[in-house]
Design brief:
A seven-stranded parallel beta sheet has the order 3-2-1-4-5-7-12, with helices on both faces. Helix content is 37%, strand content 20%. α1 links the parallel β1 and β2. By secondary structure, it is an alpha/beta fold.
Length: 286
């Protein structure tokens, strides 16, 4: 495999895994961060830090020449910026600073889909998000379509990412606390390791502009939390309605199933963690 010069914008949970994989494979890796202490951490890991905030256009003018770009920016709710200013404005600034020939992989979300009732959705399904997070990701996606029609880029609409250090509600399960969520709606997940593998596959052999990225088995929420309890020897979880109007209620109202047919057919024929059972086992045994 050829060696790339890779820029990671948003070196958080997923970005850090991609950065480590890239560094371990001999690629040159750059990563943006807004914090000097995080820059020190990155440098110790063999990653070249770039102190920059993508919402500040002037800070992106001196980006290095790169072949591949990963955009995996999570919204910082503590910032003074709106989701639109952060996600869409930042994306617009980046596109002005990064050469068109660099293959850009944009991490979007299956939250762009509005469907409920447990229906299956894929890349061809209409997307009319009813939450602001989904709407701004869809607007950022549109920038790629409009401003780089002939350039190489790939959109990965990710299901919920889990992995080491990130298992939804695990503390509540282990402590026997009620889980404020509907128990019968579907969860769609992808292990962070497989999500990172999808990024590399997109950079190398992307046959389509867009992929939904989820594992092989969407599951009712109850099944997921009960599996955590089973593997940890904890009591069977109890569910209670989330507070009316809360973010937890909005998330629990999501009830669709992600069909990963295109992902399996073109990017990752075999997932390392095809279902939540294998994924949880690999995390909880450590």
């Amino acid at each position: 495999m050829p060696k790339f010069r890779i820029l990671i914008v948003g070196c958080g949970y997923l970005g850090s895994v991609v950065a480590k994989m890239a560094h371990d494979s001999g690629h040159t890796v750059f990563a943006t961060t807004r914090r000097p202490n995080r820059a020190t951490e990155l440098r110790k890991q063999g990653i070249e830090p770039i102190l920059a905030d993508w919402t500040n256009r002037s800070r992106l003018r001196a980006l290095p020449e790169v072949d591949r770009v990963l955009v995996a920016v999570s919204y910082d709710s503590a910032s003074r910026l709106s989701r639109y200013e952060s996600q869409v404005g930042g994306m617009r600034n980046l596109l002005e600073a990064v050469p068109e020939q660099a293959h850009l992989c944009y991490i979007s979300t299956t939250g762009v889909y509005h469907q409920t009732g447990g229906v299956w959705v894929d890349e061809r399904s209409p997307a009319k998000p009813n939450r602001e997070g989904g709407r701004v990701h869809l607007q950022a996606e549109d920038l790629l379509h409009r401003h780089r029609p002939a350039a190489p880029w790939t959109i990965l609409r990710l299901a919920g990412i889990y992995g080491p250090g990130r298992v939804p509600r695990i503390d509540s399960v282990l402590q026997g606390q009620p889980i404020a969520s509907a128990e019968d709606g579907y969860l769609n997940l992808i292990h962070v390791h497989d999500a990172a593998r999808a990024v590399f596959a997109a950079w190398q052999k992307s046959a389509y502009r867009m992929y939904v990225v989820g594992d092989d088995e969407p599951m009712p929420r109850r099944d997921f939390y009960c599996e955590i309890a089973r593997q940890c020897g904890a009591a069977t979880p109890v569910f209670v309605p989330p507070p009316a109007g809360s973010a937890k209620q909005m998330r629990s109202e999501s009830n669709k199933r992600i069909w990963n047919r295109r992902l399996k057919g073109n990017l990752l024929p075999k997932l390392a963690f095809p279902t939540y059972r294998e994924g949880l086992a690999s995390i909880l045994k450590t």
